[in-house]
Amino acid sequence: MIVFKLKPTKSSKQWFEDNKVDLHAMEAAISLLFAELEPTISTRRKVLTLQIMYDANFSDYIFTTDKIRLCGNPTKSNRPSNIQRKTAFFNHFLHEFRHWMQSRVYKVGSTRIN
């Protein structure tokens, strides 16, 4: 089993606090998800770096790395509710986590990733 640790960049820590994002819950969720998809006998720890791009309206994964960049305002609305903002954030995160898995686990090249 891989136990994931999500490490925000220095400039992103405040965003996670302000938006009340529980990184420990996210770590547990993706660790369990990964264990279901790719069961292993040994236990390892994997650190993923999360960076918030404050002015961006998109998120991305930097291929062949362990860094996921997420947009600071993932909703289309100017005044989203807390639930809308968190749902959009988690959707962005899971999408980029999928790209991380394709790149780092399944060794799919960046030109073939969808």
Short description:
The chain is α/β, with parallel strands linked by helices and 114 residues long.
SSE topology:
Elements (H helix, E strand, L loop, with lengths): L1 E7 L4 H6 L4 H15 L6 E10 L6 E2 L5 E5 L10 H24 L9
Parallel strand pairs: 1-2, 2-4
Antiparallel strand pairs: 3-4
Give a quick set of tags describing it.
alpha/beta, single chain, 4-stranded mixed beta sheet, 3 helices, 114 residues
Question: Care to describe what's here?
Answer:
With 114 residues, the protein is of the alpha/beta class. The protein has one domain (2-105). Helices cover 39% and strands 21% of the residues. It contains 3 helices and 4 strands. The protein has a 4-stranded mixed beta sheet. It is globular. 15% of the residues are buried. The mean pLDDT is 92.
